[in-house]
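Continuing the batch. This is chain 6 of the set; chains 1 through 5 are on the previous pages. Same settings as before, nothing changed between runs. Recording input and output for traceability.
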Amino acid sequence: MKLLAGGKWLLVAEASSGLGATKRIVGTVMAGYDGHRGWINYLAVEPKSRGGGIGRALMAEAERVLKAAGCPKINLQVRTENAAVTGFYEHLGFSVDAVVSMGKRLEIDAAAVRRAESLRSTVIWRRHRWLAPVLVVLVGLILRVAHVDKSYGHPDETITVEVVGHMRSSGDWDTNWAKAPKLESSFRYDQYNFSSYMYGTFFFYRAAKWVPGLEAWRSRDQGFWVYRMFSALLATVVVAQAWWLARRLAGARAGLAAGALVAVVPLLVQDAHYIRPEAFVTVLTMAAVLWSLPLATKRWANLRLLAASAALGLAIASKVSILALVWLPLVPVIVAGISERKWGFCRLGVSLGLGVLGVCAGFAMGAPGAVANPGAFWRGIEYLTAQYAGLHPPHSRFEGGIVAPVLGGYFWSVLGASMIAAGLVGTVGLAVRKRWLEVALLAGPVVLFVVYFSTRTVFFERNLSHVVPLFCALTAVGLIEAGHWLARRTGVKSGYLTAGLLALVLYRPAELSSRLVWLEFSGRNAAAVAEVEDAIQAAHPGLKWHVEALLNPGPVEALADHFSKGGGALLLREIDYHDEWCAQFGPLLTQQFKVKLLATVPSIFSDVPGCTLHAYNSWTSRYFLVEGLKKPRSAD
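Output for chain 6:
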């Protein structure tokens, strides 16, 4: 019928496999114009050709034809069960109209009957589609604020507490650690690390003054609990950012999947409970990526580039390693130049200038003291460089060398094989569809930081916190891809399959986070350990109590010296961080001393290799009665 009405309303895209080869149809779209509004119907591209710009080209030609016919506006309809495609049309400039679409079929078919039967539940879901992301963010908030007021701790929390406390009491807003008089000596040296995060914490504390009823909470322990809440709220923002990012990539289902993953990943839950800058830096990194994703219109492109660059500058003022991401805001310009095979050097120069300006402005706002005192800033950089180039038990390998096996083992254990596989599927899926912009913005930072920190000699998983949400978004895309692939082969609805795959991927990180929050941060694990220690001390009254982490021969030598000088039996709690250092020096205790194992309290993360879950939260404790040396030392 369309052909009879005029061939210009039926558009097809053809392709051939080579010179002289027969052309085949790879895409079609039907357009219509009734003199009032234009309509787009049945845009389709063959599966193996999707992602190559065919759909966009067909839509562009349909718009040209309709505009030439005098059409002032184009309408189209998307079935509610095909909501994922709305993102495609949004990128082309379409938006949802405030109308109700109604229809009456003159010919009833079986498919129409099935759709009518599910229409009511679908309409209800569409009306309340905001509820699911709100619930996902709420779950993330609960996991992040739960037990945030308990007495667990992190050795670095004192840095922000003392520096911000000095800023509040002295009026000196310089964030140099050396200026905080009450900061312990091991931290009190020239260092501007965490600077913009400290300003954020400082202003969050001041903003809390405007909320009535918080005076007592705000004044407790120098504002300690306010500072922790700042981290928890920032980490919750990351859940919402991940939902929005994945939704723009692959639709509403992908958004929910990414939000759910970010909500339960143990590393991000762990970051939320400490007064450290990881959540702050992650928010800024996600903001830079979101601002770098192009909209359907090129309006505000320069402003978004400037905002993304400024966000990265602020992040660099907290963690200098973010300097490796300054190229992110330029990705849209570079990809556009490659895809269009037309380089606008003026445009590239303007973009580069705006990027440099934004990064410098963001850094200056986040670390003005570093700008004013470049020598002190550089000395801090040198200290960090030396720290990550040397050995740092238990966060290094015993023989030295790169920590790639440690990093890989940690993420394989914590994220699970299914999540890593889904993330790779998502990355490959975007690449196959030639969505190079998204690949660069999401997979690029992940690969860059994984490779870089794999080649260091010290492993702190928090150094990759800011790229974990990007990997979660890729995982969500992979789940959608896998769901569609399975649906085509099984006949089961892709939504059900995607939900099942998501549950499989969520299980491992969610289960670990539940242990972290409800056992460790709640204090239940500490109470259980204290009960064991009380029982041991009650059974051996009067004996001295020692606590040692056998990360080097020093504690063993001190213990031997104690017995060589006639010291009596004692109780020893040996701490095992599940790392190579404890594995090397731990056996020295039973080899050199007469000991009796009294009790063992395993780490609640015994199935996870050495990481800060052990070093800062739950380590394995072995309790010994040490009675003396097996072989007395000869006197020199």
